[in-house]
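Entry 12.
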Amino acid sequence: MDRKTWIVIGVAVLAFGWLNPADGDDDGDTGEPVAKQSGAPAKPGSGVPTPSAQQRKDLLRALKAVDAGLVAKEDRAVSRARKVCNDIKHGKSKKAVQPNTKARFEGSAVPKLTDEQAAAIVAAVKKSFCP
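Predicted 3D structure (tokens):
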């Protein structure tokens, strides 16, 4: 293949990656546009609020009280909390919300969470911004 063909292929691959980012990264990002600290929903009709500046502060404080590692990356913690809120808003049962929360928040900074810690995270999400 000549150089021109390789350049065209490279541009196509980059364009495809930009238009269709891979799903499954471990940062917990929903892929939805995030209106940080606005208090408005990030996506019309999603029903999942984005915490206001004060709500974010309260959420991060409550998560830190559960385990400081939960807020090692604050944006990631908020993104994961929004996913917990999404579960709550969509009527998932406590039996589903709590294990989902545990799975979302366990990771390198917090390798293992107890059921009590997962319940405390759910309570923090509800109290801070997800009534």
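Annotation: Helices lie at 3-19, 53-66, 74-89, 94-105, 115-128. The mean pLDDT is 79.
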